[in-house]
C-alpha cells in the first residue's frame, strides 16, 4: 500500500480495527446460533453483545502483544475479548476453527471493497456518458496503427469506454458474488463440532451466501477469480489512460489533462504540461495486473489447506483493491476535467489532404464497375502522392486529374465522396446501443 | 502448441482450414445482407454460396502464396476466393475492413473452443460425482499444513473438487458469452460504409451477439476476461493434481494414478510408480496461467486499434485452449481410473495415536466447566507426548491417566470422544449441497 | 511455436532429430568414459561410434512408436539405438538415469539457442551503430511524457538502443553460462552407480561445465534465470519497437518502417502505411515475457525432483527462444531499413515556437541574479502563451517583449539562448562512451 | 509493504528521510562539481554543506505540504532546502532535471538494498554449510516424484541448497552492478546545461558507475534485470521452503520447524505443529515473483521517458526488497533451528523393503550378462510385489527366491547390492565441489 495512491474509504476496510470488528461479529452471531441450538448458554451470547453495545475501542496493540506470545492471531483476539467480556466469553468460538473466522471475515472485506469499486465504476460511467453526449458529434480522426484512418467522433471514443466499463461493472458484480461466501464448518470442513445451522445464521447476518463445501478454508479459486477480474479492469484503465496520453502528445494535442494553476510540469522546463495522471494510471494498472498471478498460484493449497495463501492475501487484499479504487477515482477525475480541443481535432482531421476519404472512393470505383484490384491500385497511387507530400497535395484534386479515375467517376461524384457527415450517420445507432434510447 | 499435449478436436478449430471456412461464411452472410439492402447484386451472394456448396477444398498453400506478395492475410484470402468464384466475387467484403472478418472469426473459434472446454468440464464433473458417491463414507485423515487434522472422507474431497469445477463451468459459460460477439462495423467502427443490418445478420447466422460499439476491432477486455478465466480453471486443475501427487507419496500412498502394464516408471529404478500425469498437469497449469498476462497486456491498444494483440493471439488462442482441453481430459482420465486404497487411509488415520480427536476432548473439557485456556493446556500437554512418540502412545490412554483431565471428564466420557462416526454425521448435508438431494 | 514467427536455424535446434542426436552423443561419450574406467567393454563404445559414423537417419516415428508402449522417452530411444547397434548397446546408459540425458541435452540445446541469440544481438548492434553514426548529428526533438522537451539527435536515440542491447548481450552471455552445465550423476545425484569422471568427460566433450551438485536433475534456478533474461531482452525490443511506432504516427512521421512495393496497408483504406512490424514486435515481446513466470514456478520441484517442469520446458524451450530469435532478426531488419525523415524532424522541432529553449532562458535568468522561483514564473508565463497558441507565437519574441525579462537579460543574451548547437555539444562524449573513441 | 513481513534495516532504506538525504547529497555533490567548474559560486556549495553538517532533521511533513501545491516532488524538496539554507541555495540543481536526482537516488537505494540482501544470503550460506557438514553422512531417502528413489544424505540436500544460493549471490552481485549507475545528464540526457564532469563527480562520491547514455532517465532494462533476479531468488526460497514442508508432513516427519514453548499450532486442534514459517515463505515467494512482470513492463517507456514506471517503483522498490530481505532472514532462522530426525529418516529409508536398491540389482544383472530388457523385467516383477505389500515383503528375499535371478547372481552377490554405504561414497566429492576442499 502506497499512501499517495490510497483513499481513506478503501484503506479503512483493511485496518486491523475493521478486521477485528468483523471477527467479533462473526463470533457473536455464531454464539447466538450456538445458544439457540442449546450448545452454549444464551447468557454467553448476551454477554458478548452487551459488551459490544458499549461500542468498545479495538485495542490493536493489546491484541498484537498477545499474538507475540501465542503466535496465533485468532487465539490472541479471543483472549483479548475474553479479557474484556469475562467468563461468559469462554463459550465463544465453540467448535469453530480459526479459518472459519479468517476466511469469512476476508469475504466480508472483499464484499465491502467490491461495493466501493462498483460505486467507483458507477461514478466513472456517469462522467463517461456526460462526456460522450457532450462530444457526440465532435468529429475527430479515427486512427488504426497510430495512422489516420477515417473520421469518428470524440463522443464515440467515450461511448466505447463506457461500454467497456459497463462490462467491467458486470464482471465485478459477478466476482463479488463469487467471493462473498461464509464458511463456519470446523477444522476440516465436516461440521464435526458445529452444526451447519450456525454457518447459515452467520451468513445471513453478514449478507453472505453459504459455502457449499469448504475444507478448512474457503476454496481459493473464488479469490483467484476476484483478483483476475480486478486485473481486467486495470487493463481497461490502462487503455483509456493510454488514449489520453496519445491525445495529449505535442503533435496531436486534441485533449489535455486539466492543469491546475500553480502546478509545475518540469523543474527544468517551464513550458511543459505533461499527462502525468494518465501515465501514473498506466503504472498503477501494471501493479494491479501483477497481483493476478500470485492469486492464481494461491489456488493449489495442499490437502484441506496450507497457509501459503495468507501472506499473499495480506499484500494483495489491500494493495489490489486500494490501488484499483484510487485508479478508478483518478481516472474519473481525469475524464471529468479533460480539456477537449475540437478545433485541433478538426485541424488534424483535415491535415492529410483528404486521405481519410480514400475508402469511399475505392467503393465508388468498384460500384462503377472497376475491378476491386484496379480500384485499389488507382486510389493507392494517388494516396501515396498525398502521403509523401505530408498533406500538401489534395487527394480529391489528384483524383480529378487522374484519367483512369475520371473514366469511371464524374467530378461531382468524386467530390461527393469527401463528405464528413457521411461517416457520422450511424452515431445515433451506436449511442442507442450503449446508452439506450433515452 | 505441443503435439503431445493436444487433442485433434481442439486442434482442428485452430487450423487454417477452419479459420478460412469461418472467414468465408462471414463474407458470404455479409454479402447476403448487402444484397438484401440492394448494395450489391443478389447474384453476387448467390455465386458465393453456389461455389461453397460444391464443398471446395481450402487451398491454404495458394492463399499463403498470395499473402507472401500482398503481406495482408485477408486480401490474400479474398483474392483466392475471387480466383475461384469469378467476377461476382468483387462485391464481396463491400464496406468491410479486415478486422470485421478477423475478429468475428476469432469470436467463432473461441466459442467453438469454449464448447469443447465446457464439455470437458462436464465429463470431469460426471467422474468426480461418481468417485464422490463411491467413496462418500470412506474415512481418511483431513490434513491442514500437511499435518493430520481430523477425519474427513475421500468422497468429500471429490465433492469439493466437483463444486470447484462446477464454479469453473459457470465462469467459462460467462467467459464464452463475453467473447462471442460479432463486429461488422468498418474501418473505425462507424458503419460509414456498411449498414448495421449486415452485422446483425451475420451475428445471428453465426450464433453471436452484436458488439455494441467496436472501434476497428472488438475490444480486447473481452478476450482478457476469457483467458483470465482459463487461468483460474488451470489453477483448479493444479489443485486437484497436487492432491493426487500428495496422496501417492510413498509414505502416504492412499491413492495412485493407474499404472498400465508395460509402463516403466524409471529407466534406472524398476520399482518406481510415479504420479507423472498429475505432475504433468501441474506444469500444464503453469503454462495456461502464463498466457493470462499477455492477454491482459493486449487490452490497451492504441486509439481505434493497433495490431500488437494479433501475434499474441496467434500463440495463446490455440495454446491456451488446446493445453487446457488436453489437461481437462487428462485430469478426467486420472480421476476416473485413480486407484484408491481405503485400507491405507484407515491405517494412516489411526497412526497418530488418536491425536485427531484432540479437539473433541478440548470442547468436552470446556463444556465441563474448565476454562478454555486450561482445557487447551491440558490437551496440548498430552498431545505433545503422543506426537513425540511418533504415534506409539495413545492420546486416550494418556488422558485417562491425567488427573486434571479426569477431574472434569469420566473415563466413559473420554472414550466417547474417540468415535470416528462423530466426524461424518454431516456428510449427507454437504453432499446434498453439492449434488442436490437426488 | 507459430511458424510465421520462426526461423529455420532456431527451429532446427528444437527438432526431435537434434534432440536425439544430442542424446546419442551424451550416451556415447559416457560409454567412452565408462569403457576407460573398465566398467563396460571398449567394444561397446566402439560399436556405438561405428554406427554413428555411418551417419544414420534418426527415425523419429520408430522411437515414438516404442514410447507409445513404454511411456518413457529415454527408454524408447535406447531401445531404438539397441535395435540398430545390436548387442553391444546393452552397456549404454550404465548407471545413468534418464534425467542425466534429458537435462544435459537441454543444456546443449539452450547453449545452441544462446549462440544464435547472441549472434542476433551482434547483428542488431552493427545496424544500430551504423544508424547512430549516420544520424549522429541529425537534430530531433527529445520528448518526455510525449511532450516536446529539448533537442537531441536521432543518432543519440540509436546510441541509447545500442547501449541497451550491449547490456542485453552481456546478460545473455551470463545466462548461457548459467544454464550450460552437464549432470551425469545418477538417480538422485549421488554418483552411486556412475563415477564422476564420466560426467567430467561428457561435459568437456560437449563444451559444458560440470554441475557441482545435482539431485536427479540440474537445478531449475539456472533455467529460471535464463528465461528471465530473455524476458528482459524482449522488453528492450518492445521499447525500441514502441519508439518506431511513435515516430511513424501520422502527426509525427519522423521515421517509417520500409514499405515494400506491392504491400497493402489496409484492405479498406488504400492510403495506409502502418508500422505493423513494430506492432508485431510489441506483441511478441509480451509472449516472451509471459514465459518468465512459468520458468520461475519451475524452480520449486519436490525433493530430488518432480517432473512438472518438463511440460513447461517443452513449450517455453522452443517458444521463447524461437520467438526471441525471430523478434531480434525482425527488429534488425526494421532498424536497418528504417526510413528516416530529417526534414520532418526539423519541422517538428521548430513547431513549438522555441519552447524547447525554455530551460536555457531559465538558467540565464537565475545566473543573472533573478531568484529561481521568479525565473520559473517569468519563463512559464510566456511559455504558456506560446503553448496555447499552438506554436503560432514565438517564445523568443515574447521574452524580448517582457520587461521583467529584459530587466535581467539583453536582447542579444535572449537570442543567444535559442541556439540548437548548444544542445549537441556533448554528443561526441556520449558516442565515445557507447562506441569507444574509434 | 506489510509490517509483519518487514525488518527495520531494509525498511529504513525506503523511508522519505533516507530518500531526501540521498537527494541532498546528490544535489550538494553536484553543486561542488559545478562550483569547481566555475558555473556556480563556491559559496553556494559551502552553504549547502555547512547546513548539512548541522545534521538537520528532515521535515517530511513540510516537504509534503509544499508538494501539495507544486505537485512536483523535487521542486518541493528544493524549495524546502532553500527555505533552510537561504539565498545560496538558488544555485543548487543548476542545469539538472528532476530525474537526475530521482533516478540516481533510486540507484543508491537499490544498491543499499542489494547490500543487505547479499548479507542476508551470506548469513544463509553460513547456516546451510553448517547444517550440511553436521548431516554430511546422515542417510535419508532421496525422492523423485515424491516416491522413494535411492539413498542420499541430509547433508547433500543442504549442500544443494548452498550451491543454489551461492549462485543467487553471484546473480545479485551482478544485478547490483547493473542498477548502481548515476545519471546527471539533464532534461533529455544531452548534458546541454550541465557538464558531464558533474555526473562523474557525483557517481564517484556515491559509489556508482556513470550511466553511459541516459535519456531523461536511467534506462529501465537495468531495473527489470534487478527485479527479475529477485524473482529467481524468491523461487529458490520457495524450493527450500517446500522441501521443509514436505519433510514435516505427518507421514514423513524427518524434520520440523522449531516450535517454541507457548506457541499454538491450531486454535481448535491442540495436537498440531505446523510448518507455518515455510508455508509463509512460499506465499512471500509468490509476491516477489509477482513484482517481476511490472518491472519488465516498465522498460518500454515512451521516447526519452514517460513517468509510468514511477508508481510501479514506489510499490516494488520497497515491497520486493523488504519482502525478500524478510524472507531470506526467516529462511535462515528456519534452517538454523530446523529440528532434524535422523532416526525417522532411517526408519523411512528402510520401510520400502529394500526397493531403493533395485537399480544396483538391475546393473548387476546386466553386468552378469542378462539383457537390459530381461534384467528390468526381473527386477520390476519382484519390486512390484514389495510395492504392493506396502513394504512388508523384502526385495532381497524375493530376489533370492527367484530362480531366474539366482541363475545370474549368487546369494552373496545379491546381498552385496543392499549396502547403504555404496550410495554415499561420493559425498566427499560433491562436498568438495560445493564447499572447497577445506
UniProtKB/TrEMBL annotation, chains A, B, C, D:
Molecular function as annotated in GO:
(S)-2-(5-amino-1-(5-phospho-D-ribosyl)imidazole-4-carboxamido) succinate lyase (fumarate-forming) activity; N6-(1,2-dicarboxyethyl)AMP AMP-lyase (fumarate-forming) activity
Give one Pfam family. Answer: Lyase_1
Q: Which reaction does it catalyse?
A: N(6)-(1,2-dicarboxyethyl)-AMP = fumarate + AMP; (2S)-2-[5-amino-1-(5-phospho-beta-D-ribosyl)imidazole-4-carboxamido]succinate = 5-amino-1-(5-phospho-beta-D-ribosyl)imidazole-4-carboxamide + fumarate
**Adenylosuccinate lyase C-terminal domain span:** 353-435
Example of a GO biological process term: 'de novo' AMP biosynthetic process
Main EC class the enzyme belongs to: lyase
The biological pathway it contributes to is: Purine metabolism; IMP biosynthesis via de novo pathway; 5-amino-1-(5-phospho-D-ribosyl)imidazole-4-carboxamide from 5-amino-1-(5-phospho-D-ribosyl)imidazole-4-carboxylate: step 2/2; Purine metabolism; AMP biosynthesis via de novo pathway; AMP from IMP: step 2/2
Q: What is its EC number?
A: 4.3.2.2
Keywords per UniProt: Lyase, Purine biosynthesis
Q: InterPro entries from the entry?
A: AdenyloSucc_lyase_C, Fumarase/histidase_N, Fumarate_lyase_CS, Fumarate_lyase_fam, Fumarate_lyase_N, L-Aspartase-like, Pur_lyase
The UniProt entry's GO CC annotations, sorted and at most eight, read: cytosol
What NCBIfam families has UniProt attached to this entry?
A: purB
**What family does this chain come from, according to its entry?**
Belongs to the lyase 1 family. Adenylosuccinate lyase subfamily.
This chain's protein is named Adenylosuccinate lyase
Amino acid at each position: 500500500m502506497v499512501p499517495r495512491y490510497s483513499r481513506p474509504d478503501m484503506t479503512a476496510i483493511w485496518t486491523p480495527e475493521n478486521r477485528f470488528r468483523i471477527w467479533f461479529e462473526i463470533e457473536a452471531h455464531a454464539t447466538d446460533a450456538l445458544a439457540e441450538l442449546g450448545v452454549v448458554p444464551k447468557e454467553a451470547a448476551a454477554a458478548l453483545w452487551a459488551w459490544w453495545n458499549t461500542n468498545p475501542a479495538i485495542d490493536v496493540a493489546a491484541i498484537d502483544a498477545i499474538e507475540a506470545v501465542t503466535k496465533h492471531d485468532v487465539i490472541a483476539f479471543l483472549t483479548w475479548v475474553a479479557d474484556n467480556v469475562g467468563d461468559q466469553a469462554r463459550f465463544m468460538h465453540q467448535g469453530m476453527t480459526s479459518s472459519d473466522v479468517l476466511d469469512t471475515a476476508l469475504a466480508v472485506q472483499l464484499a465491502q471493497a467490491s461495493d466501493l469499486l462498483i460505486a467507483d465504476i458507477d461514478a466513472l460511467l456517469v462522467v463517461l456518458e456526460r462526456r460522450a453526449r457532450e462530444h457526440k458529434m465532435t468529429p475527430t480522426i479515427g486512427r488504426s496503427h497510430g495512422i489516420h484512418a477515417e473520421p469518428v467522433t470524440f463522443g464515440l471514443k467515450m461511448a466505447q469506454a463506457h461500454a467497456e466499463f459497463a462490462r467491467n461493472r458486470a464482471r465485478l458484480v459477478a466476482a463479488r458474488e463469487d467471493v462473498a461466501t461464509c464458511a463456519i464448518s470446523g477444522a476440516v470442513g465436516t461440521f464435526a463440532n458445529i452444526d451447519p445451522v450456525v454457518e447459515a445464521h452467520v451468513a445471513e447476518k453478514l449478507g453472505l451466501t453459504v459455502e457449499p463445501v469448504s475444507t478448512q478454508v474457503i476454496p481459493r479459486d473464488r479469490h483467484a477469480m476476484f483478483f483476475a477480474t480486478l486485473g481486467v479492469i486495470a487493463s481497461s484503465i490502462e487503455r483509456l489512460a493510454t488514449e489520453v496520453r496519445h491525445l495529449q502528445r505535442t503533435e496531436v494535442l486534441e485533449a489535455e489533462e486539466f492543469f491546475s494553476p500553480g502546478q509545475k510540469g518540469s523543474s527544468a522546463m517551464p513550458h511543459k504540461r505533461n499527462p502525468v495522471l494518465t501515465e501514473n494510471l498506466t503504472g498503477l494498472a501494471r501493479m494491479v495486473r501483477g497481483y493476478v498471478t500470485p492469486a492464481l498460484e494461491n489456488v493449489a493449497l495442499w490437502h484441506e489447506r496450507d497457509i501459503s495463501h495468507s501472506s499473499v492475501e495480506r499484500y494483495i487484499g489491500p494493495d489490489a483493491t486500494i490501488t484499483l479504487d484510487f485508479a478508478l477515482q483518478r481516472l474519473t477525475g481525469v475524464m471529468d476535467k479533460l480539456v477537449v480541443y475540437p478545433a485541433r481535432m478538426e485541424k488534424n482531421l483535415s491535415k492529410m489532404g483528404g486521405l481519410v476519404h480514400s475508402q469511399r472512393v475505392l467503393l465508388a470505383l468498384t460500384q462503377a464497375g472497376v475491378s476491386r484490384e484496379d480500384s485499389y491500385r488507382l486510389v493507392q497511387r494517388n494516396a501515396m502522392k498525398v502521403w509523401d507530400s505530408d498533406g500538401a497535395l489534395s487527394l480529391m484534386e489528384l483524383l480529378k486529374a487522374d484519367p483512369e479515375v475520371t473514366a469511371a467517376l464524374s467530378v461531382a461524384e468524386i467530390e461527393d465522396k469527401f463528405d464528413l457527415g457521411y461517416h457520422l450517420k450511424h452515431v445515433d445507432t451506436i449511442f442507442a446501443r450503449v446508452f439506450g434510447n433515452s
